[in-house]
Amino acid sequence: MTNNQTRKYIYIALLCAQGIIISLVERAIPFPFAVAPGAKLGLANLITIISLFTLPVNDCFLLMVMRTILSALLGGTLSTFMYSLAGATFSFLGMVVLKRFSRRFISMIGISAAGGLLFNVGQLCVASFIAQSWQVLLYLPVLAFLGILAGIAVGIAANFLFAHVKTLTSLKMQHEI
């Protein structure tokens, strides 16, 4: 194993650990809106955004899966794992497509907002499958609005980190070359 591979694996492990910690802390924060049960801020998506802009897609996908599995093992249930994995996968795939094909037209904030929306779509697809009813999807407008707002907030945070953390800025530039 080369020195660069070792650094990459350490970087992925650090991002994964940060994502798990953020996820566990977020779970401890009560959501103030009774209108949207099951809604959350999606702060751990910050790690996915950072990885999308600093790692190859396959490493980013591995990170997302590891973070989802470990977060569920440390503080979730089988149902939270299913919802999280579906939401994270929808979100990840959508953000990868937007980043790859709309780089000039959509900012990091826009990509993150789309990720917030798609996370909720993935969760509602699982809920619809479990409930054996498409009517669960009627909840989408509420979750879409909240997901887009949360995605914008996460995108702003990611922009801030890339602007002020020198290591991230250099990794982003290396990844774009």
Describe this structure in words.
The protein is mainly alpha-helical and 177 residues long. The protein has one domain: Orthogonal Bundle (Arp2/3 complex 21 kDa subunit ARPC3), CATH 1.10.1760.20. Helices cover 79% and strands 0% of the residues. It is globular and about 50 Å long.
Summarize the entry for a quick read.
This protein has 177 residues and is mainly α.
Number of separate strands:
0
Provide the domain count.
1
Largest sheet: none
**Helix-and-strand structural type:** mainly alpha
Radius of gyration: 16 Å
Shape: globular
Gap between N and C termini, in Å?
23 Å
- Look up the CATH topology: Arp2/3 complex 21 kDa subunit ARPC3
Which stretches are poorly predicted, pLDDT < 50 over at least 5 residues? none
CATH class (first level) name: Mainly Alpha
Mean pLDDT metric: 87
Order of helices and strands: HHHHHHH
Strand content: under 5%
Fraction of residues in helices?
Answer: over 70%
CATH architecture: Orthogonal Bundle
Tally of helical runs: 7
